Amino acid sequence: MPQTVRIKTKREIAEYSVEIARGNLGNAGRWAREVLGGTRKIVLVSNKRVFDLHRGQLVKSLKSSGFNPLVHLIEDGEKYKNLGTLEQILEAFSRFEIARTDAVISFGGGVVGDIAGFAASIHLRGVDYLQIPTTLLSMVDSSVGGKTGINTEHGKNRVGSFYQPKGVLIDSNVLSSLPKREFTAGLCECIKHGMISGKGLLDQTVSVIEACHQDRVDILKNEEFAGRFESFLADQIAFKAKIVAGDERESVLKTDARSRKILNFGHTFAHALERATDFRYFRHGEAVGYGILFAAEVSKKLALLDGKVVNLLRDVVLRAGTLPSLSVVESDQVFQAIRYDKKNIDGSLQWVLLKEIGKPVIVPHSQIGDGLIRRTTKEFISAQ
Ligand SMILES: NC(=O)c1ccc[n+]([C@@H]2O[C@H](COP(=O)([O-])OP(=O)(O)OC[C@H]3O[C@@H](n4cnc5c(N)ncnc54)[C@H](O)[C@@H]3O)[C@@H](O)[C@H]2O)c1
Ligand SMILES: [Zn+2]
């Protein structure tokens, strides 16, 4: 007789803190000890560029708390967020004899964070993992929410896991060495959060963009501004965390305004731009800058969003910094790439659009139609 055994597992609810302060690298040892307790070994995963620039305070602080960090450096760049690099990291973990009671710390931007997190989630079926993000994008976006993964020849983030870190440490001082282009890319993700969250976060983002316009490095050293900037980071992160808490695994069937999918605002077009240019031309955040404007444009065409709001959003994105020209991009290739987007569910692509600032809405591609998207893609690319 057929049998059914019902198995109930208690869903793991992860709770962790994001600590944000200038000079926090100097507190990393105490922080890691507090978060990890009696953990024996830690392995730092980073890349040469970040590690050379900022290891001093970090390693000193970890040592003073009794850690003797092992180090594994990966190559720098999105093209190394792949299976080969993952294999090397896992090989290093085994060579270092990293046990279940040990821990991994990622120290770098989103590339390092995503791949180190994924490696931590599968080494011995999961070892503790902490993040120290060093780009603006990784501070406000990729270090929070537990998405880890790698790219494959079939697309971005094709293989990965949901794996929450035990803690995140942010030292805003490290941003002073971040190239302007990377800063602009991070600001674009911040604008994205502002647009879907509401006027409060969008205004705060605009005021940070204004303040950083002249000289970001100088302004970050300013005591008064640094405090404001840290609150800004905290509000950005709190917004993302709130959405993630309501829909940790981005449920396929959830399509209301609280779905985690709303965080993909601007990303359908952004991923298509990245794919059409072989992931070499845009920084991810730059493509998102165009992507959110494209989504606003489609929203206007569907009479969801007022044209004045679209113009305002365009100004905000332009103020964030110069984006690479779209003149090298073939609109038909971008349109074809949209169809490959991984948010393609059972063949029906879903768009995150905007009814007004702070009011995202998920609309199936079938309700919009190929014609409008193809036309808007062409107009949008030739108008930039
Ligand atoms: N997991 C998520 O939820 C999530 C969310 C958004 C983006 N991502 C992923 O994040 C990645 C993009 O992250 P990114 O924009 O941080 O890119 P990145 O990790 O490639 O870093 C950008 C560049 O800045 C350098 N860098 C980092 N910190 C620096 C510092 N303080 N000073 C000087 N140089 C520094 C890096 O070496 C690199 O060359 C993509 O792979 C994207 O898919 C993941
Ligand atoms: Zn993104």
What does this 3D model show about the protein?
The structure is a single chain. With 384 residues, the chain is of the alpha/beta class. 49% of the residues lie in helices and 16% in strands. It contains 15 helices and eleven strands. The protein has helices at residues 28-36, 48-64, 83-95, 110-122, 136-142, 180-197, 199-212, 216-221, 223-246, 267-276, 284-301, 307-320, 331-338, 365-368, 370-383; strands at residues 17-20, 42-47, 70-74, 103-108, 128-133, 147-152, 155-162, 167-170, 344-345, 348-356, 359-364. The strands form three sheets. It has a six-stranded parallel beta sheet with strand order 1-8-5-4-2-3, with helices on both faces. The protein has a three-stranded antiparallel beta sheet with strand order 9-10-11. It has a two-stranded antiparallel ribbon with strand order 6-7. A hairpin with a 2-residue loop joins β10 and β11. α3 crosses α4 (110-122) and α13 crosses α15 (370-383). It is globular. It binds nicotinamide-adenine-dinucleotide and zinc ion. Nicotinamide-adenine-dinucleotide binds next to α2, α4, α5, β7 and α6.
